[in-house]
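TODO from last week: model AAA+ ATPase domain-containing protein.
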Amino acid sequence: MEFASSILSSILSKIGEHLVDSSIHQANYLFRFKNIVDDLKKEDENLRLIHDRVQQDVVRAKRKTEEIEKDVEKWIMDVHNILEEIQRLEDDMQVKKTFLCGHCPNWGWRYKLSKRAVKKTSVMLKLQESGKFDRVSHTTTLSGVEGPKDFISFKPTEYAFRQIIETLKNDKMNMVGLYGMGGVGKTTLAKVVGKEAREKKLFDGVVMVTVTQNPNVKNIQSQIADLLGLKLEEETEEARAQRLCKRLKNEKKILIILDDVWETLDLTIIGIPFGDDHRGCTILLTTRQQQLIWRSSKTLPSTAFSNLVDLSLDSVGLREICSGGRPPRGFLENLETLKISSCGSMSCLFPSWMLIQSLRKLKKVTVKECGEVEDVFQLEGLCYAKENPFLLSSLESLNLNDLRNLRYIWKGPTQQVSLQSLTVVNVEGCDELRYIFTLSLARSLLQLEQLTVKYCSSLEHIVEIKEAVGGGNDVMFPKLRILQLGGGLQNFINFYSENYSLNMQTAKELNLLRHGLENLEELNIEGYGGVQVLFQLEGVEQELSLSSLKVFKLERLEEFECLSKGPMHLLSLQNLTKLEVTRCNRLRHMFSPSLARNFMQLEELISSYCGGLEQIFIEDDAAKYNQTLLKDHLH
């Protein structure tokens, strides 16, 4: 009995203590109202200060395109919510606070508000403590690939797209090649592939960089690093490559898209781990050259990419022309500029000389990416007559790009055609074309100032001499200032087809300019694999005069060994001021003793990436005087 009384007494004692503490606590809500409100306002102010500081950090981070941490975003939202609740609490405090005409406090109101204020103060104290962030954001990894929203899919692109995606799913394949002519949409397709690979989570990361025709290793490294959120502080390419390689190896699976590649890349120099070095790194390479893809990797699966047919002919008149019909009256007579792009079903631009006869005002013609075009101007059936007006006499510029099936620019007799106003001609990516002008057309080129020919793999001559209509074969281009013969002319033999022709494949000489072109000011020759001698003067009696030539550029002549052979007095280059030689690895020396006297006005000499170059000048007693004069002009 005593034991039970003891237990009961203890329990009652604890209950009493609890009731006393609870009573005191409850009484505080009534009698410490002012202090509680002051504490609320104080912590409200402190929380707002912390919130403002965090918010400033967030604004700075967003300006840097950094991503805000999730816990920071939640904290800011919680602060906004509690501050709104505090505001409502303060509004409630402004209501009637007393009763009996203001002589007695409203104890019920005071009790409720005090209790709410204490709870809100406690929440604010916790938010102040949790708002002490070490950082509010982190650097984001840029995607580097954004496919076009309005990308229209056609059968060629759908096929290539599916083929690339299926290849990328194969873990055993670590490089995919996409090739095609310029402008067909390789870059667009690569972006769409990259976007698909990222969205379908085929890779942990996808980056896309542009290489360009003149690749800069540091620039490529920086592009990749930026997309990975990596800062390269090293100065040398080697150190940057090591840093980049280490970062890329952190990605279990990554797709690197190298767009617009023109020559074989050394991935090690850039810092891209590949093959056994990192099986998770896959390369998608886009280029115009199929051979480059195969040189890049023996096990490379390449995706053939055909011409896109993504535009239609909106003009009724042009639709009639392309279908061989009769255009509306007056349509051709007023036409001055004609631009045709990506029209896949058109085989001939002007299928009748009668249509061409109406083009009296035509000044500019541009045709590109029309894979089925075989002829531009169809002249079959046209007869020469002095009394008849010449055709195309107002034409000023002619641009033909990426017409892979083009066989003839002018098909049929051309004696009734005069290109007397033509100043600019640009022909690129026409693989089936064998020549540019006939003899009669070349004779009419009195105003031609710029001629560019590149990537025409079947081209043999600039001028095809088959006609025998008086006047001899003395073709002249009196106003030609710039001549650019670029890469991809594997079958090019000579400027003219007869009289001055020389088979480049057997003789290993590029005998371009044996006659005419005295007013040529700039000459660019690029990408001839078999050229050993540029000016072959042995057995020649007539002087080769390039007396107006000021700028001479030679690039990627893989077999090129010397500028000239034979009697140097037959070569006239006395006004040349700039000579630039790039990537001619078999060139051993620039100037022989007898050649130096032909370059007395040379002011600028540039040689780069010529791995076999041993000497600029060959020294001997007979040539020291001429070489001294030449050196004095260089700066």
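Done. The chain has a mean pLDDT of 74.
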